[in-house]
Amino acid sequence: xxxxxxxxxxxxKQLAYFFTVTVFLLSCxxxxxxxxxxxxxxxxxxxxxxxxxxxxxxxxxxxxxIKNAKWVExxxxxxxxxxxxxxxxxxxxxxxxxxxxxxxxxxxxxKIEGGGRIDLLYRLIGGGRPHITFNRGGVxxxxxxxTQGVELEALTxxxxxxxxxxxxVGSQSRRTAWMYINGxxxxxxxxxxxxxxxxxxxxxxxxxxxxxxxxxxxxxxxFKIWSVAFTAEDVEASMAKTLAVQASDKLTTTWGKxxxxxxxx
Length: 265
Fold this sequence. Notes:
This protein has helices at 7-29, 36-39, 199-202, 232-262; strands at residues 40-44, 53-55, 63-73, 78-89, 100-108, 118-122, 131-136, 139-146, 151-155, 166-172, 176-181, 184-190, 204-206, 218-226. The chain is of the alpha+beta class. It folds into two domains: 1-33 and 231-265; 35-229, Jelly Rolls (Sandwich), CATH 2.60.120.200.
């Protein structure tokens, strides 16, 4: 490496290279991506930064009620950090999708390797599916889904979840359900029918169970629900898109800091 080049220029060059490569890879994969204009049922970027409402930026425009959570830095922009808290949504009043995908980023406050039940996603009222849960019936983590006739599950192969960021995708076609973590297939299970999503009639809770218990303590960001099943290419593309935006934000922040520091000399 040529150490005669000033440090800030070398850092900027490295960041710019990383960002360029990431965006190029993303562009190669987007040909497979689900269509936000017609397939996106809910998108919660959690970028409000203040207030007690979480706003859905999809065409449906749902609004959630935030309890016991604060705004913090997320995987992209802002996120919500929960401390025995939740975001509650009244019944979503959407048509029942025949397929579905749920994706989001989460970061536990503490290592999870057993213990009491923790619900990352559940209904606001009543029983049903889907839900995404730690420590249910001796299983560390699972994507609990259903068809119109039977309740099913895709269970993790992880032994523990550290206090770090994870990218979760739970996807269900009419034949199969998949659970991806950090872009890699973690588990799959047979479905055998149209998807069942009970959020339409029973509402939805993020970071808690029905009636608000079994709290997930940690950070959640970039929450989305789709009316299609993701392919492996969709998962890779969505994850890459988020990381590309994150890299862009970091590049901008780093550049601003470097310019500010340079004024001191």
